[in-house]
Write a structure and sequence with these properties.
Elements: E1 4-7, E2 25-28, E3 33-35, E4 40-50, E5 55-60, H1 63-69, E6 71-74, E7 77-79, E8 85-92, E9 98-100, E10 105-113
Antiparallel strand pairs: 1-4, 2-10, 3-9, 4-8, 5-7, 5-10, 6-8
Length: 140
């Protein structure tokens, strides 16, 4: 599969795999942006993508940023029809301010095949062993 990437800034870094076999493409910051603890924002990447029809780009945390600094991505669905700049929604759940530096990794994106479903209204749903059991229903 080919993923077309358009640089919107001449020095933008194209998404890339860090290692053979990686599932996610590293996405790079196109700007310097500092977030205080509890603050959210959008990190520009300086690129736009052409994701093939029938696929979606799913944005996920970089584990090092998440575990070491409390940086969590927000949103994260890039539809195949979107051609604008990829912006990464983030929130700083850490205890210290964090600066995204231009050219550094900010998130990762998985390109995945999607299935379209037909939505129909129904008065009843099939029963299962779980039923309506929700959060915490299976115990500790």
């Amino acid at each position: 599969m080919i993923l077309k990437v358009k640089r919107l800034e001449s020095d933008a870094i194209l998404p890339s795999y860090a290692h053979p076999g990686d599932a996610g493409l590293d996405i790079y910051s196109g700007e310097d942006l500092t977030l205080a603890p509890g603050e959210s924002g959008k990190v520009k990447t300086g690129v736009s993508l052409e994701i093939q029809d029938g696929f979606v780009g799913l944005v996920w945390d970089k584990s090092g940023l998440s575990i070491n600094h409390g940086i969590k991505t927000l949103g994260g669905v890039v539809d195949s029809g979107y051609r604008g700049e990829i912006m990464i929604g983030v929130i700083n759940l850490g205890k210290e301010s964090y600066t995204f530096e231009k050219g550094h990794k900010v998130a990762q994106m998985l390109i995945q095949k999607i299935e379209r479903v037909e939505v129909i209204e129904s008065d009843e749903l099939n029963d299962t062993s779980r039923g309506v059991g929700g959060f915490g229903s299976t115990g500790k």
